[in-house]
């Protein structure tokens, strides 16, 4: 799978379903297609109802990820819609999501760097800052055991690596 393919699948996943991924894949393969062509193409992989295909296309269209050309059917007089992926828009969409993720990661990293943490040896979900620990005399809110200070250097290393990776991806 190429990078674009992977990104495409990630984006389609954001739209909530395997069906969306299938529609995006199909559209990428065919290039330009009507909802019926897509639904037919999908039949070989998985059954997606025409109605679902349409809903997914409208959602992608709302986010500017697909474009649409209207052609009037000369026999019926109805409009036929041809859909096509918008790779540039897709790229912009992915970048803006990555930027948001990067901001959040940086905030988290700052928080980890600027605080000391205390944990309960029994309740793994209990983790408080020094300030929060002070308020409860360093007793666990669940089992009332004494909290112990916890090293977060490992966590900081992981966060730093993720920040670096995202920054590198965004600088391309
Ligand atoms: Zn506890």
Percent of sequence in beta strands: 5-15%
Give the class from helix and strand content and strand pairing.
alpha+beta
List the ligand species. Answer: zinc ion
Distance between the termini: 19 Å
Strand order of the largest sheet: 1-3-2
In helices, the fraction of residues equals: 55-70%
Mean pLDDT across residues: 90
Count up the helices.
Answer: 7
Q: Which sequence of SSEs, written as H and E, runs from N to C?
A: HHEHHEEHEEHEH
CATH homologous superfamily designation of the largest domain: Winged helix-like DNA-binding domain superfamily/Winged helix DNA-binding domain
Q: How many domain regions?
A: 2
Low-confidence runs of at least 5 consecutive residues? none
What would you note in describing this structure?
- With 172 residues, the chain is α+β, with helices and mostly antiparallel strands.
- The protein folds into 2 domains: 3-85, Winged helix-like DNA-binding domain superfamily/Winged helix DNA-binding domain (Arc Repressor Mutant, subunit A); 97-170.
- The protein is 56% helix and 15% strand.
- It contains 7 helices and 6 strands; from the N terminus they run H-H-E-H-H-E-E-H-E-E-H-E-H.
- It has helices spanning 3-14, 18-30, 35-42, 50-62, 87-113, 130-135, 153-170, and strands at residues 32-33, 66-72, 79-85, 117-119, 127-129, 148-150.
- A 3-stranded antiparallel sheet has the order 1-3-2. A 3-stranded antiparallel sheet has the order 5-4-6.
- It is elongated and about 80 Å long.
- The two termini are 19 Å apart.
- 16% of the residues are buried.
- The mean pLDDT is 90.
- It binds zinc ion.
- Residues 120, 122-123, 126, 140, 142-143, 145 line the site of zinc ion (ZN).
């Amino acid at each position: 799978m190429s990078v674009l393919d992977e990104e495409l699948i990630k984006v389609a996943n954001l739209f909530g379903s395997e069906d969306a991924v299938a529609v995006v894949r199909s559209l990428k393969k065919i290039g330009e297609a009507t909802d019926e062509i897509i639904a037919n193409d999908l039949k070989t992989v998985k059954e997606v109802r025409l109605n679902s295909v349409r809903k997914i296309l409208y959602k992608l269209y709302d986010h500017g990820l697909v474009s649409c050309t209207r052609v009037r059917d000369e026999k019926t007089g109805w409009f036929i819609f041809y859909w096509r992926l918008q790779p540039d828009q897709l790229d912009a969409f992915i970048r803006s999501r990555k930027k948001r993720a990067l901001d959040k990661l940086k905030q988290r990293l700052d928080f980890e760097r600027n605080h000391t943490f205390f944990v309960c040896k029994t309740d793994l979900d209990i983790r408080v800052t020094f300030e929060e620990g002070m308020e409860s005399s360093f007793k666990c809110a669940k089992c009332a055991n004494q909290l112990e200070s916890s090293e977060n250097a490992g966590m900081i290393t992981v966060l730093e690596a993720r920040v670096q990776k995202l920054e590198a991806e965004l600088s391309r």
